[in-house]
Amino acid sequence: MKQALATDKGERKLRTGYTTGACAAAAAKAALLALLTGRLPDKVRIMLPGGERPVFALAHTVRGEAEGGTSWAEAGIVKDAGDDPDVTHGALIITRVRPLPQGSGLVFRAGEGVGTVTLPGLPLSVGEPAINPGPRLMIREALQEAVEEAAKKAPGTGSMPNFSAEDLEITVSIPGGEELAKKTMNARLGIVGGLSVLGTSGIVRPYSCAAWVASIREGVDVARALGLEHIVGATGRTSEEAARERFGLPEQALIDMGDFAGGLLKYVRTHPVPRLTIAGGPAKLAKLGQGMLDLHSKRGRVNMAELAEWLPEYVPEEVRWAVAQAHSVAAAIAAAERAGIDLPAIIARRALATMRAVLRDAPVRVDVLVVARDGRVLAEATEPDHGGA
Questions:
Q1: How far, CA to CA in Å, does 275 sit from each of 115, 226, 261, 269, 353?
Q2: Are residues 231 and 376 in the same domain?
Q3: Partners of 187 in the β-ladder
Q4: 4 CB neighbour count, 10 Å cutoff
Q5: Which domain does 222 fall in, by range?
Q6: Is 389 inside a domain boundary?
Q7: Is residue 387 in some structural domain?
Q8: Separation of alpha carbons 165 and 151, rounded Å
Q9: Are 71 and 125 contained in the same domain?
């Protein structure tokens, strides 16, 4: 049964969904059941890590023989991400299962639309299919469920096939996945050829953006593994391009942080790099300066009265009032500029202070770039050396 989560306003419940990893595991179970029982089911139930037992309808089933006469079976499930804006919502997740010689173990393969790891730093070795450890474990457990269920259906009949369910080739495919991957950070992480099969819990919680935060962490891990000494977390493409031009950094040094400043800062605190720059527009960075770590508009607005309090004491009261009453940060900047006050520079320093407070004594030098919509750098603030030194 589909789960639902209440929205912040309680107006409507949002449906949860299931990850690509959960879909791949359910498809693997169905495919193995077909090999063990001779019949392809039309639906399958699996146990998720949190104890949930969802049922998945099969949208694709087929059996065949490989060279040498080895039978194989595959099943496919259309991913339902619930009400989450997931790029893979509606994608067909296919898992093919083929027996291998005894002692081979479980061998994972990347089929059509599933990427391959080409850079160090991810939780998988270079050359491995981008099927993360969480989904691999779910697949392994789903296969064991298939063995147990097949044995219950034919106890002591001797009709079970003569192969070990522990020695299997598992190929996961996502038709169209290579094109979908262009909308993700996979290429920057060194995952080429398609999507990653993700999901630790098996459940997609609407707007939790767990996949995005996981990509931020993977981006930091890749940068560290490559020995990069300077990374940039940007709120958007314009600020990212401004930072790239300013510092001349390679692709793997650029982290698509989005609104998740807290996710990046907290991870860098425990996985430090020598230097971290956060780049973004003045409104986003004003939020950061006011202590907000989720910069999305739904999580809060800039406190304009507090923004006015940041102005120097000598600023005339009418200017302070104009900033406090401004309808936007851009309007506040214009009001301050007419009085000769560089508000973007103040915002940059405040954002820098928040970064340091979150990073604590981590040995990371931090910088802030405040970037206009047209790509101009409005202000920059930097620490003279590592904050933890």
A1: 30, 14, 15, 12, 15
A2: yes
A3: none
A4: 13
A5: 211-382
A6: no
A7: no
A8: 12
A9: yes
Q: In Å, how far are 34, 44, 90, 334 from 130, measured between CA atoms?
A: 26, 24, 20, 48
Angle, vertex CA 127, rays to CA 124 and CA 130, nearest 5: 50
Query: Are 104 and 224 contained in the same domain?
Result: no
Each residue's pLDDT tens digit in the chain (389 positions)? 445 444 444 445 778 899 999 999 999 999 999 999 988 889 999 999 989 999 999 999 999 987 766 789 999 999 998 877 788 999 999 999 999 999 999 999 999 999 999 999 999 999 999 999 999 999 999 999 999 998 887 655 445 566 778 899 999 999 999 999 998 889 989 999 999 998 888 888 776 677 788 889 999 999 999 999 999 999 999 999 999 999 999 999 999 998 999 999 999 999 999 999 999 999 999 999 999 998 876 777 899 999 999 999 899 999 999 999 999 999 999 999 999 999 999 999 999 999 999 999 999 999 999 999 999 999 999 987 654 44
Alpha-carbon span 226 to 252, nearest angstrom: 9
Question: What is the reported pTM?
Answer: 0.80
Q: What angle do CA 8, 14, 15 make, to 5 degrees?
A: 155
Return the biggest CA–CA distance within the chain. 92
Does 297 share its domain with 370? yes
In the chain, how many domains are there?
2
